[in-house]
Amino acid sequence: MAMDTDTLIHFYFLIGLTYNEIVSCLALQHQVLLSERTLKRRLAAMNLYRRKNKPSLIRVSAFLSKLILKDDMQSGYRWMHQRCLLAGYMLSRETVAGLLSIPDPEGVELRKRKRLFRREYYAKGPNYLWHVDSYDKLKNYGICMNGCIDGYSRKIIWCEVTHSSSDPRIVAGHLILSVEKISACPRKVRGDRGTENKDIAEMQSILTTNGTFIYGSSTGNQRIEAFWRLLRMECCQFWIEFFGHLRDLGEFSGDIIYKNLVQLVFMNFVQNDIDEAESVWNTHRIRPTKNGNVPAGKPCILYCIPELEGTKNYSLQVDQHVLQICRNECLFHKNTPNDSDMHEFIKLLMEENTLTSPETVEEAYDLYVTLHHMANREIHIF
């Protein structure tokens, strides 16, 4: 269902777009023509201002404190500022930086001193080059991730949690769903020589005659590796420590029962955290660099409206018949345990004992402990 103009304006204002970016989005994405003056007048009518109606610093401090406890002060003030905007707190970066310096002044100072020396990177425009890679830090617990990022805009194309990152049919399914979503194919895709990329490479070559799959080392896949680093700071470190704690308590041994329980109970929570991090990433503003070939701005804007930076969308049209052939070779089930028989067994235990799906991580932990004791008891009986 299409949103009305005021709802669109409110949404774009909330994610921190500038007036010019909002006007451009309305015109190019929704065919709504507004001048910047009219936009400001409509924002005023909705009581939306950049410098007025500042939120209570106490409320913002409480919000930031919850985020700090979650990521252990790994995120910088720019990332935290974007999270505040998405939560509805309109305030400046300087204010967020000041609030963050109160609980951890030493950590803030250390982050200021860090210096990254980046290699130069160049992509002509959105959908010119996609970077694909798998993230296996949680693989030992039965949770695998696969992601893709647009090289020009740095917008996340997909970042999905599944039970396997090595099955090429599952990874290819992510590509096909993304191609269907934008009704086009990227000009090039880059990935390593892992077996999981075998089907993507073949499909990329047949979806369009101009398509190319570029092989390279995983460590040299700059764009997606940068996102993995930030994703770990934002949410994955929490889950690495959480599952490590289960292992240290003797509540995870690594066998098929435990992995299926983790997949069934916790996988959706991991995906939700990743989706939240992805939303922040796609709407945060990337700073200008000395490398003039790298555009600055918000990934979502750079991807959807490349004309603002004087470039274009480099995607290629695909033959729908060929796309359907590729689709038939993919697997699309996600967020389900690897072993279907074990999955049904666990579901049966939940039904027999009137156990419901958890709504919080704490409830998920209690359900996990209860189910693994029940499953072990039932298996020993047989």
Secondary structure blueprint with pairings:
Layout: H1 5-14, H2 19-30, H3 36-45, H4 57-71, H5 77-86, H6 93-101, H7 105-113, E1 129-135, E2 144-150, E3 156-162, H8 168-182, E4 188-191, H9 198-207, E5 212-215, H10 222-248, H11 256-283, H12 299-304, H13 320-328, H14 340-352, H15 361-381
Parallel strand pairs: 1-4, 4-5
Antiparallel strand pairs: 1-2, 2-3
Task: Walk me through this protein's architecture.
With 382 residues, the protein is α/β, with parallel strands linked by helices. The chain folds into three domains: 5-45; 57-113; 129-328, Nucleotidyltransferase, domain 5. Helices cover 53% and strands 8% of the residues. The protein has helices spanning 5-14, 19-30, 36-45, 57-71, 77-86, 93-101, 105-113, 168-182, 198-207, 222-248, 256-283, 299-304, 320-328, 340-352, 361-381; strands at 129-135, 144-150, 156-162, 188-191, 212-215. Strands 3-2-1-4-5 form a five-stranded mixed β-sheet, sandwiched between helices. Helix 1 packs across helix 2 and helix 11 packs antiparallel against helix 15 (361-381). The longest helix is centred in the C-terminal third of the chain and has 28 residues, at 256-283. The protein is globular.
Q: TL;DR of this structure?
A:
The chain has 382 residues and is of the alpha/beta class. It has helices at 5-14, 19-30, 36-45, 57-71, 77-86, 93-101, 105-113, 168-182, 198-207, 222-248, 256-283, 299-304, 320-328, 340-352, 361-381; strands spanning 129-135, 144-150, 156-162, 188-191, 212-215.
